[in-house]
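We were asked to recover a plausible sequence for a given structure. The inputs and outputs are reproduced exactly as logged, with field labels preserved.

PROBLEM: sequence recovery
POSITIONS: 54
GIVEN STRUCTURE:
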């Protein structure tokens, strides 16, 4: 990310599904739980987009 923090996204084949694992460096301004909720919202939107593309 532009501030030096890192995000790693891993896609794991689960046969007919894919597990997505996201690991991120938290920033110090907001609580970790708030940041996790934000990243989860991004992943939920990605899931919705990917399922519409099938």
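RECOVERED SEQUENCE:
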């Amino acid at each position: 990310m532009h501030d030096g923090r890192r995000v790693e996204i891993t896609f794991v084949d689960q046969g007919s599904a894919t597990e997505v694992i996201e690991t991120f460096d938290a920033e110090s301004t907001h609580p970790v739980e708030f940041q996790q909720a934000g990243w989860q919202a991004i992943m939920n939107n990605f899931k919705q987009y990917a399922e519409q593309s099938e």
